[in-house]
């Protein structure tokens, strides 16, 4: 049956390179209809769409299989609860396109999303192309202003990524060259539940000599009701600090500028974590103390980080945390042992 557990790439369009679109999903049945519409409406047609189902217990598998059976360029693969990092690794393993991108099943893209990314990559001969995105509904404007492409080169690319200045850690607004991923053996950290994108992008950008940024916001990031921002603070969020520790250790081998930027990146995630700890009255004092200790280390590097925009991003979550601490409104914390994923 077409598109299920074997590769069916169809006939590539003449002169057009294939983009492999990796879509991890878990219990995603209510989002799939809109996801299919976005993919079907893509102006760029030479797509290899890879759905990796991480052991869904709803009707996700059946819905995707019906969709795949009618299309030669759709592949469905099921894995058993490997987490989003494992699902994406399976997608990378299966991908046969010259270019690779990622798409979250509950988000939306404009019809020109893939074509804009590809055009920016090829017209500038870049190693990666990145597009702007919005966190609210995006309508495709066919007669809007032309998309502008900005070029960045050398170490500036990696430093901007670390400080999330122009380039962020998101996966879904980027188009990667498959050869860079394969030649350098890049993959997501197995078992990571949070922050696997920062890890992957850091090691990819180490191999980037030129990056293209498209100013057109063709990706619509939607926070659904089950997102981390709407739920209580989860200790799985602490996984990101294990990934950032690997990034910092590697950056320290590359010189002071990268070291300062890597520590500044961790400082941003620490302030966000402290904000959510305050917001949801998280009770583990040992976790808070360790985060504060790490933040003090990182702030020493922040003084030497030349990315001014980073200071503004740090202040937004830090102000309410500092105010709550000053007025004694942080809530009583009782537990005093670190969770397993935050001990090292």
Specify the overall morphology.
Answer: globular
Main sheet makeup: 9 strands, mixed
Strand content: 15-25%
Beginning-to-end CA distance, first to last residue: 47 Å
Question: Poorly predicted ranges (pLDDT <50, ≥5 residues)?
Answer: 1-15, 140-144, 225-230
* Helix/strand class: alpha/beta
Total number of beta strands: 9
The DSSP helix count reads 11
The helix/strand series, from N terminus to C terminus, equals EHEHEHEEHEEHEHHEHHHH
Radius of gyration: 21 Å
Task: Name the average pLDDT.
Answer: 85
Can you give the helix content as a percent range? Answer: 40-55%
Question: How is this structure best described in words?
Answer:
This protein is an alpha/beta fold and 344 residues long. It contains eleven helices and nine strands. The protein has helices at residues 29-40, 60-69, 83-94, 113-124, 155-162, 178-183, 196-205, 239-251, 256-279, 285-302, 308-326; strands at residues 19-25, 47-54, 74-79, 99-102, 108-109, 128-134, 149-153, 174-177, 210-220. Strands 1, 2, 3, 4, 5, 6, 7, 8 and 9 form a nine-stranded mixed β-sheet that branches. Helix 2 (60-69) links the parallel strand 2 and strand 3. Helix 8 runs antiparallel to helix 9 and helix 9 packs parallel to helix 11. The longest helix is centred in the C-terminal third of the chain and has 24 residues, at 256-279.
For this entry, give a set of tags.
344 residues; alpha/beta
Task: Detail the topology: elements first, then pairings.
Layout: E1 19-25, H1 29-40, E2 47-54, H2 60-69, E3 74-79, H3 83-94, E4 99-102, E5 108-109, H4 113-124, E6 128-134, E7 149-153, H5 155-162, E8 174-177, H6 178-183, H7 196-205, E9 210-220, H8 239-251, H9 256-279, H10 285-302, H11 308-326
Helix pairs in contact: 5-9, 7-8, 8-9, 9-10, 9-11
């Amino acid at each position: 049956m077409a598109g299920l557990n074997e590769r069916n790439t169809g006939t590539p369009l003449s002169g057009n390179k294939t983009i492999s679109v990796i879509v991890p999903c878990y219990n995603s049945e209510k989002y799939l209809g809109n996801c299919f519409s976005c993919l079907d409406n893509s102006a760029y047609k030479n797509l290899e769409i890879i759905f990796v189902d991480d052991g869904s217990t709803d009707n996700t598998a059946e819905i995707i299989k019906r969709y795949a059976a009618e299309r030669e360029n759709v592949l469905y693969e099921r894995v058993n609860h490997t987490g989003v990092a494992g699902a994406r690794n399976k997608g990378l393993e299966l991908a046969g396109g010259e270019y690779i991108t990622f798409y979250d099943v509950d988000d939306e893209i404009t019809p020109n999303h893939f074509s804009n990314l590809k055009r920016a990559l090829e017209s500038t001969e870049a190693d990666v192309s990145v597009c702007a995105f919005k966190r609210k509904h995006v309508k495709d404007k066919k007669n809007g202003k032309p998309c502008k492409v900005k070029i960045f080169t050398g170490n500036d690319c990696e430093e901007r990524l670390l400080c999330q200045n122009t380039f962020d850690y998101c996966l879904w607004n980027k188009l990667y060259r498959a050869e860079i991923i394969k030649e350098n053996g890049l993959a997501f950290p197995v078992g990571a539940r949070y922050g696997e994108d920062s890890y992957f992008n850091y090691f990819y950008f180490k191999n980037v000599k030129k990056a293209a940024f498209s100013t057109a916001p063709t990706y619509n990031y939607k926070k659904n009701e089950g997102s981390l921002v709407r739920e209580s603070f989860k200790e799985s969020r602490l996984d990101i600090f294990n990934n950032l520790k690997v990034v910092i250790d590697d950056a320290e081998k590359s010189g002071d500028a990268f070291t300062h930027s890597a520590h500044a990146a961790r400082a941003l995630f620490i302030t966000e974590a402290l904000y959510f700890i305050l917001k949801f009255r998280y009770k583990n004092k040992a976790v808070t103390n360790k985060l504060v200790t790490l933040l003090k280390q990182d702030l020493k590097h922040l003084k030497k980080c030349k990315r001014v925009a980073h200071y503004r991003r740090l202040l937004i979550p830090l102000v309410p945390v500092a105010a709550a601490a000053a007025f004694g409104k942080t809530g009583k914390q009782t537990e005093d042992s670190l969770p397993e994923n935050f001990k090292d």
